[in-house]
Amino acid sequence: MDLSARERLVRELTDELLVRIGREAPANAERAPDRATDSPHTPADPHGAHPAARDLAGYIDHTLLRPDATETEIRQLCREAAQYRFATVCVHPSWVRLCAGLLAGGGVAVCTVAGFPLGAAAADVKAYEARRAIFDGAREIDMVLNVGFLRSGLDDRVLEEIACVARVVHEGDARLKVILETALLSGEEKVRACVLARTAGADYVKTSTGFGPGGATVEDVALMRRAVGSSVGVKAAGGIRDAAAVRRMIAAGATRVGSSASVKIVTEDERVPTAPRAPAR
Fold first, then answer.
1. 177 is a catalytic site residue
2. Is residue 7 classed as helix, strand or coil in its secondary structure?
């Protein structure tokens, strides 16, 4: 499918979904993605632009979501985040309080997950996970949407679930990212998921958990960016392991990147003297 055909599909699906849902987007759905809870070094409006080498870390959620991660590894993750000034550390909820204490006042936020990695928990369970994590110090919540509901055409239930969690997250002055698990979805389903997330008030849409059958692709990031427009962030995650891949994702429209290879990425990038400019869009 060529670019113009994809853009027509996005417009048509957006119009159709908004009519079907029968409601206007909540006020916070059109908020720019640079909420006050951003780390101060995170680029405010990086859509489609290549950052300078020294700023690349500000796009990255430094991630450790292995189930066997130890406290020693979590502490090392936080030391690295503070040293390189990543946007956040992304950890399981049980480590949020520790990370928030270690990173307090340092400009690096704590991100955690809800309904992870399958997305099949009940909406109120995901909302409770988010509320508890915010109480413990999380500033960003990456929630997995219910892929089965989406693929069943239960758009109202998907919308209600995201809106339920978004209310809790925004009441806590935090940010919500909605993980689509794009490798499980068709192109039409990816667009529907993006429109539903935007309409429900999500701050970001995110490609993948990193535990599914595939990770982020440039094509998916570009499609998601067109589907949500400029008012919602796009996070690319899953299989991103070098600086060149990060730059491709940013050029495609990502405003955040999740990776467990963050230190390799930024130290590799320090050897690049000049960052290439993004192509005209």
1. no
2. helix
Query: Does residue 134 sit within a domain?
Result: yes
Range of the domain at 76: 3-23+48-269
Per the structure, the count of domains in the chain is 1
**CA 158-143-265 angle, 5° bins:** 135
Catalytic residue among 155, 206, 220, 269: 206
Show the tokens assigned to 239. Answer: 């299989």
Q: Model pTM?
A: 0.83
* CATH code for the domain of 116: 3.20.20.70
Of the candidates 229, 225, 256, 261, which has an alpha carbon nearest to the alpha carbon of residue 242? 261
- Sequence-ordered alpha helix ranges (H) in the chain: 3-21, 71-84, 96-103, 123-136, 147-151, 155-171, 187-200, 218-228, 243-252, 262-269
238-270 per-position pLDDT tens digit = 999 999 999 999 999 999 999 999 999 999 866
Tens digits of residue pLDDT in 117-150: 999 999 999 999 999 999 999 999 999 999 999 9
Active site residue 206: yes
Residue among 155, 203, 235, 269 flagged as catalytic: 235
State how far the alpha carbon of 148 is from the alpha carbons of 20, 67, 154, 191, 193, in Å: 19, 24, 9, 16, 12
One of 38, 61, 136, 142 is an active-site residue; which one? 142
Query: Predicted confidence band at 2 (pLDDT cuts at 50, 70, 90)?
Result: low
Q: Is 235 one of the catalytic residues?
A: yes
230 vs 13, higher pLDDT: 230
